């Protein structure tokens, strides 16, 4: 009895988004894609980016015409076996895009198309896109009615931007690389699709941006932290000085005593007029934005992470979120043994004392400060920490 010869089949995988290219200009390729979807219903879907433009005929009359964009890329959602079969039967019209390799990097558009046509199909090299990434890409593209902006990844240095997530608004949940102008926290978020193209969102305000990762090798994180201390520091002082109700005269006396010990330093706290901290504080929104932007940020170094936890500890203390205060206090305590930089240790200890009232942290901060010796007139950071520790101690936390 003869054995039945088995035909070699491509490995079966779950449905994914595959990157294809149409060799036809215009939207006639949609008919092919639509027919495939109608024939196979749940097994096949597609996304074809298009836009409407005004063109003139030979008589000068204007017409509104739909055209494909983004280098005629087509995105098909199906199994690997299906996309192989689909591109084979439509090989004069639609070709798969392969993962780039050295010999195709510098080819022109025409050369690349020929390369795809002649390439022996290797299923593992067909370019695919994870569902979540494709979902964000479709969302971003659909936000534009026309004039969809798009770039090849080589046209912009994605390594120089921060990886972010948009929270709230039209682009809620979108992740990408933030393109921003110097001095601004907001900007456009580039949503990339593998290594074939990128689409920027509309302008995003800073309160809707959560930082996931800063650009490699930059000093961006230090600049953000340094600018935040000028807001969180007076806000924390205000919160601690006013946490006891106005009618408590002993509390007013303690606040006045603390201010006297500052000896002419920052006096933004209004002594004797206890004011309930809340949404009317000038830095309230800045603190909310910081918490939103940096709660899920993962710094590269232990020092950065300890500073991040300390700032979030202070922010939640100001916002009155005691469960988060306890959580970040624990995270700071866990990091302290790993911190070698004395300034970072002292910084964390001073504000652990402020936010928890545990005197042990004050004593440990004093030990660190003794090792500093005399504080120079130009050493603003040491002066700030010394003044704050004296202020918090005078409040008798």
Walk me through this protein's architecture.
This protein is of the alpha+beta class and 397 residues long. It folds into 3 domains: 16-129, no CATH class; 132-138 and 146-213, SH3 type barrels, CATH 2.30.30; 220-394, Alpha Horseshoe (Serine Threonine Protein Phosphatase 5, Tetratricopeptide repeat). The chain is built from 12 helices and 12 strands. The protein has helices at 29-40, 80-89, 109-118, 131-142, 220-241, 249-261, 284-294, 302-319, 322-335, 342-356, 359-370, 380-394, and strands spanning 16-22, 45-47, 50-56, 62-68, 73-78, 94-96, 128-129, 162-166, 175-179, 188-193, 197-200, 209-213. Strand 9 (175-179) and strand 10 (188-193) form a beta hairpin. Helix 8 (302-319) packs parallel to helix 10 and helix 9 (322-335) runs antiparallel to helix 10. The protein is elongated.
Main traits of this protein?
3 domains; single chain; Serine Threonine Protein Phosphatase 5, Tetratricopeptide repeat; SH3 type barrels; 397 residues; alpha+beta; 5-stranded antiparallel beta sheet
Task: Give the arrangement of secondary structure elements.
Elements: E1 16-22, H1 29-40, E2 45-47, E3 50-56, E4 62-68, E5 73-78, H2 80-89, E6 94-96, H3 109-118, E7 128-129, H4 131-142, E8 162-166, E9 175-179, E10 188-193, E11 197-200, E12 209-213, H5 220-241, H6 249-261, H7 284-294, H8 302-319, H9 322-335, H10 342-356, H11 359-370, H12 380-394
Give the N-terminus to C-terminus distance in angstroms.
Answer: 92 Å
The averaged pLDDT comes out at 75
CATH fold call of the largest domain:
Serine Threonine Protein Phosphatase 5, Tetratricopeptide repeat
Using only C-alpha atoms, the radius of gyration works out to 30 Å
- Main sheet makeup: 5 strands, antiparallel
Count of all domains = 3
List the secondary-structure elements in sequence, H or E.
Answer: EHEEEEHEHEHEEEEEHHHHHHHH
């Amino acid at each position: 009895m003869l054995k039945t010869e088995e035909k070699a089949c491509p490995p079966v995988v779950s449905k994914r988004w595959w990157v294809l290219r149409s060799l036809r200009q215009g939207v006639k390729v949609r008919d092919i894609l639509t027919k495939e979807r109608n024939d196979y219903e749940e097994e096949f879907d597609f996304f074809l980016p298009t836009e409407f433009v005004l063109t003139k005929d030979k008589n000068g009359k204007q017409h509104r015409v739909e055209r494909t964009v983004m280098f005629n890329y087509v995105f098909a959602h199906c199994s690997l076996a299906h996309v192989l079969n689909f591109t084979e039967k439509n090989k004069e019209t639609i070709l798969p895009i392969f993962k780039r390799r050295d010999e195709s990097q510098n080819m022109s558009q025409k050369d690349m198309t020929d390369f795809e046509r002649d390439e022996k199909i290797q299923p593992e090299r067909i370019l695919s896109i994870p569902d979540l990434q494709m979902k964000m890409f479709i969302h971003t593209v659909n936000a534009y009615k026309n004039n969809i902006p798009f770039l090849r990844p080589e046209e912009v240095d994605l390594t120089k931007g921060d990886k972010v997530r948009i929270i709230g608004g039209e682009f809620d949940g979108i992740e990408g690389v933030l393109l921003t102008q110097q001095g601004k926290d907001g900007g456009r978020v580039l949503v990339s699709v593998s290594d074939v193209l990128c689409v920027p969102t509309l302008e995003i305000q800073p309160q809707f941006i959560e930082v996931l990762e800063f650009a490699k090798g930059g000093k961006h994180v230090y600049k953000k932290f340094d600018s935040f201390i000028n807001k969180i520091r007076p806000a924390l002082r205000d919160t601690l000085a006013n946490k006891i109700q106005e009618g408590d005269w002993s509390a007013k006396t303690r606040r006045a005593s603390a201010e006297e010990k500052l000896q002419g330093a920052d006096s933004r706290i209004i002594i004797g007029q206890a004011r309930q901290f809340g949404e009317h504080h000038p830095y309230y929104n800045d603190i909310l934005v910081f918490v939103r932007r940096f709660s899920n940020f993962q710094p590269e170094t232990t020092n950065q992470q300890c500073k991040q936890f300390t700032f979030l500890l202070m922010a939640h203390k100001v916002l009155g979120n005691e469960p988060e205060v306890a959580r970040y206090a624990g995270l700071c305590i866990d990091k302290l043994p790993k911190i070698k930089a004395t300034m970072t240790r002292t910084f964390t200890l001073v504000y652990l004392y402020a936010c928890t009232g545990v005197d042990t942290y004050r004593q440990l901060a004093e030990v660190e400060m003794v090792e500093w010796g005399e504080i120079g007139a130009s050493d603003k950071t040491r002066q700030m920490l010394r003044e704050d520790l004296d202020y918090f101690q005078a409040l008798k936390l």
